Amino acid sequence: MCLGLPMTIVQTDGITALCEYRNEQRRVSVVLLSDASVGAKVLVHIDSAVRLLDENEARLISDALDGLEASLNGQDCDRFFADLIGHQPQLPEHLR
C-alpha cells in the first residue's frame, strides 16, 4: 500500500523542495506542480509532490493517518474519522 503524506514546503528551488511533516524533513521533487511555494501544503508520494492541498484537506489526511496508527495499536479511532460518520462514500464517476 502506498500512502501520501501531507507535507509543508519549507524551502524550494523550483525543482526540489525541502518538506516537513511531524518533525520529519525530506527533499522531494516538485516538478509536477506549477505553484510550489514556501508554506504550501502538498501531497507527497515516494518523494514526489503530486498535488497541492488546502489546509482542510491536509488536516483530514493527517487525521486519517492518526486514525490508522490508533487502529493498528488497538486504540479507538472513531474520532479521527468523524467526517465520515453518517456519510456514504461515493465512488468517482469513472469507477461507477
Automatic annotation (TrEMBL):
GO terms for biological process: protein maturation. Belongs to the HupF/HypC family. This is HypC/HybG/HupF family hydrogenase formation chaperone. Pfam families: HupF_HypC (PF01455). GO terms for molecular function: carbon dioxide binding; iron ion binding. It comes from the Bacteria.
